[in-house]
Amino acid sequence: MTPAQVLANKNLVINGGCRVIKQEIAEDTGIVADAFGDVASVVKTKHTQYWGGGPKAHELERGFAAYVGKQYAFFHNSGTAALQTALFASGVGDGDAVAISSSGFIASLNVIYHLRCRPVFLPTDPKTMVVRQDVSQYVKGLHLKSAIITHFFGNVVDLSSTCEQMEGALIIEDGGQAHGAFYEGRPVGSFGDIGSFACSNKKLVTAGQGGLNVTDDPHLIEMMRVYAHHGKDRHGVETVPGYNFRGGEMEAVLAIHALRDLAKRVNARNKVAKIFHKRFKESGINFAVPFDGVDCSPAWFDIPVILSDAWVGYRDDLIKALIMEGVPAWKYDPLICAPWVRPYMISHGWWDDASETMMRSEKSLWDRTFVIGTQFTADEADVLAQRIVDVLNAQ
Length: 395
Ligand SMILES: *Cc1c(COP(=O)(O)O)cnc(C)c1O
Prior knowledge:
The chain is of the alpha/beta class and 395 residues long. It has helices at residues 3-8, 36-45, 55-68, 79-89, 106-114, 136-139, 159-164, 218-227, 249-260, 262-282, 315-324, 341-347, 353-366, 378-392; strands at residues 72-76, 97-101, 118-122, 146-150, 170-174, 182-183, 186-187, 194-198, 211-215, 296-297, 302-306, 369-373. The protein contains 14 helices and twelve strands. Pyridoxal-5'-phosphate is lined by residues 78-80, 83, 104-105, 107-108, 150, 174, 176-177, 198, 200, 211.
């Protein structure tokens, strides 16, 4: 089916057709509603936040560090704050080169900008939709200080391969969509110097608002706590220009409840992923898969559907059509294509022909990709998968 045939289908709501999906289907936020009693108990104490983090934040930190198999964890007020704290703790200075997977969430790029660093983009592997295994040509001679590598969509980066080429840079794994995923038998986030995890809505360890960093390095965790407490060290001296980035007690309670159910949550999402994958495979629809021959198990957060080249220029119309059908489809842009990136890098003399080439090739891949979430019931997933398949077959 050509995009024109698919989009001209008279059965589509956008063309005046009758909606096939009768119910309203939305992704679950993942907030554990049963936590309300424990949240109320926190409110009754009248202490919903503490300097240095309160008892609930510390309970969460202990639990999460143990889960990832790291010594320390620190609970922040957002995933973005956690990433910025991680990058700061890595010791970056003005203009330092920081490698970043172009396949990732915009927050990981924003923190590089806010710490006045130079992003060094790593391209996307078109089968897995995470960073490529072979990236050495993109980092050569740039003296990387750090690297932020994202396990996007809950799929798992081939860490040994990609990180080995980072020339000794401090590795920050962004596992914001991949809590509960494994690489070579270990939880993601345990491989890098720092594992960074968002706890916002729909994330597998949901706090509504929050973020968690893990590390084994006492110096790194100390720098994180200082940075996230207005830059004040343990003696109260403002040693660095910091932020108020610490997480609150009510949010910590929500995350503790979500963490308790993590294995169950991952199973449910992977079960939904399986439903989508099976239906798409039967219909010849291409979707992101794990790396061949790499020992890993994803925790699918979204299913990226990768369309043929013909869809470049039509993908957004397809998403509009799907949303009108009651299918909450969405898209991500590659980070190198964020509109402010090119001018920012040009103004610093960091943009060259290779950047231009990468921007174009990333765009041509991501412009024919849409995503569908996994935070649905199995029944909802059945209905959604069926409708996506039918729409793409012009039915
Ligand atoms: C959500 C997310 C973040 C940012 O988290 P916030 O809590 O929204 O600030 C960072 N990285 C990834 C991969 C994410 O999915």
